[in-house]
Here is the input.
Amino acid sequence: MIRLPAIKIQQGLSSRPFLSAGSFLGTLALALAAAVPLIYLAGTDPVTAYGALLRGSVGDQYALSETVVQATPLLVGGLAVALAFHAGLFNIGVEGQLVVGGLAAAAVGVNLDLPAAVHLPVAVLTGAAAGAAWAAIPAVLKAWRGVHEVVTTIMFNYLAFGLSRHLVAPGGGLASATQPSASDPVADGARLPALTETTRIHSGVLLAVAAVIAVGWFLYRTPAGFKLRMVGANPTTASFHGVGVRRVQIGALMGSGALAGLAGASEILGLYGRYLDSFSPGYGFQAIAIALMGMLTPLGVLAAAAFFGMLAAGSVGLQSVGISRELINVVSGLVVGFVAAQPALIGAYLRRRRKRQASGQGEDASAAPADVDARSAHV
Amino acid sequence: MTTRRPVPAGEDSPAVRLCDITKTYDAFRANDHVTLDVARGTIHGLLGENGAGKSTLMNILNGSVRPDGGRIEVDGRPVRLRTTSDARAAGIGMVHQHFSLIDRLTVVENLALVARPSSWPRRCVMPVDLVGIEERARLLADRLRFAVDPRARCGSLGVGARQRVEIMKALWHHAQVVIMDEPTASLSPVEAQELLSTLLTLREQGATVILISHKMPEILAVCDEVTVLRDGRVSRRLSIGADDRDPGPRRDRLEADLVQAMIGRPRPDPPARAAAPGSPRLVLHGVGDGARVGPVDLSVHAGEIVAVAGVEGNGQAELIELIVGVRRLRTGRVLLGSRDVSSDGPRTRLACGLGHIAEDRHAAAIATRMSVTANAAFGFVGARMGRRWWLPARTMRAHAGSIVDRMSVRLPGLGANIEGLSGGNQQKLVVGRELARDPSVLIAGQPTRGLDIGAAGDVHRELAALRDGGAGVLLVSMDLTEVLAVADRIVVMRSGRIVGDVPAADADVDTLGGWMTGAQPSEQKGVQPSEQKLVGA
Here is the structure.
């Protein structure tokens, strides 16, 4: 059996909101700062570049709406990754599950003829179910045979990409007669309705927000979520205390797949109205960075998705000042890098702070009691 | 070993002198102006409760923790120990309680990791001289009278042998001072005896040993001097002469004196024995896993503490797993009360009144990275705590709070990660959690491992109280002293079977030891299940 290193996330951190918010902003600032030399290399200065980025993402109402549109799939995808992570599983297959979810939603939207009130929920739920089904085989292989989910979910990504290309290729089951590499438009009754007339914001956003609340509630306010986190923290302890580890692992990975499928369905039914091959520019992979940057908490994922949504929306603004939008990929990459370094950075920060406090206590005895009081109050 | 060391500055200067050492963690004073002199060529015992500051002090001497204030002298010369390699260069080596061997590597390869050159450019280009290391390893093993195969993979070695490798690692750089942190905690009685004679060998050869231990008998058996820490301060310092070691009133007085200095009160009395046992609470009938255990017949009655004694690795861990339901039962039946739970999982068994204090806390009892509150709720959530879609945080906190109060766990806060607690306090939390289940059968796997005398006494009293309340307790322990003090009935396990069964009142160390090692013919009672024992109870 291949053993890959487990990725450990400090769960305790979520109980220290200021520290986690601080490290979130710190990571972000470091990534943006590290991109500065590259901006000069690209022939402009950071003020112009970041100014354009801000204008393109939050500068006016339309820019803001584009940020929301871009953030939606990233948010749901990020929740998918986070959910699996809490159970100790690394779901790299979110991208594939998202594609399959989009495919299934489009198939239902195009081919079924149902009343509007039923058609949309059926299409959305089919998308989620397809994502869950795509995660089911890796999940079962993991739980019963110990096959590492990283390997199988990556494999299943390629299967999903192939399936998608095949279905919308000429002669494929979903291919449109008029538009290459796409399906026919879905029925109007299966579309997620737009929320405004002038922007691309669609009601998939509401689904995403509902997903944040649902995942947060599930993880921290239900026995099932507690057991899931227990399996992630120590599977042996969990099994000794009556938790069915295999069931939890299968459920977590399939739940993660369902969220990913929901993200895909929301894009297809909300934004595009038809299945487009490669409709996802890698949402499922960015979702991993988003989940980690958000420290796996639903609100953190929301914040991280908003940031990545800003980057995506702002890239259009960047092009307008003559910078390649590839710079956005560089910034995303830097964020991922700093997120990976985060535990080390936080650890170094905490150590320094402790040391300062310790030496402060030694030098100034009168300050010590107040300091101690403040901390015990915080605890 | 003395040949490679420079001549000491003065013959009467102590091997190690820690002077006025202070170390504060947040608001907690781990060491408060501690002064410790360790004379050359002696074994120096360092005693104290959990959290008394022993480990902090020794980590300071080992260079892994920096003191806030104080001086350190080695051989009469002041030294600054900023890192463990500084300590190594000063001739100080430490054997930690938890081993740090890489299982997949051989003994020689593990030693190569400490033998590597100290500067990194050389580390990158110098070839590793495995042949030379093996040769030295054999010499070192001979000198210490160790039988360790240098080519064995560390993963295949027993606990005692692994510890010997750790000792060789500590001595590799000609350490003059060896710190041993609770070295016998995970050893069988025989291995522990071997370790103590190794310490004597080291002393004979001129080394200085600092021995951290909770166990009075071994301190009294080998130490020349003892320092007791309490609440970060030195509370007692005395030397032990040859006539103090022999059993007798003089030794008893000395022991009582040390215990008083350690815990601030006399040693807690062992709990009283049980009255007559009642109906069976746990019945094992021909239980086995088809490999390492079985068939085992055993019953634990209401109002009875049954101890399973044995050398570690003789199937005790597997037997516990079979009882809890995480190991597949291949043969036999498990009954809790009158209910056959053979085909049920841990969840049902917990619901039937089973409690379990896991032998290996980190592996099976707690989840680091989760909070104290969460850890206190394991086994409760989903069963007795919360509804299907609602797990009230307040209930969980109240539950954790009551356990913390009852067991007087010292902790920074309920929301803190459980890793922030010392090992002893983690264990108290686990014990408290299992008692809070109000079990009718409690499986206690080495429940006092790593606890100091005071806390261990508390756990023993809790076990006795549980028994007196009508529960059955199955105590699995390697510590014969504990078994003899607490149990009502003792069974001995060897090679996955029960080879002896005796009321604690009739038991003595020699018989038990004989059964454990197989030196004495086993009593057939346990091997041949007597039907009337199961039925007649």
Residues 1-14, 360-379 of chain A have pLDDT under 50 and may be disordered. The first strand of chain A starts at residue 182 and ends at 185.
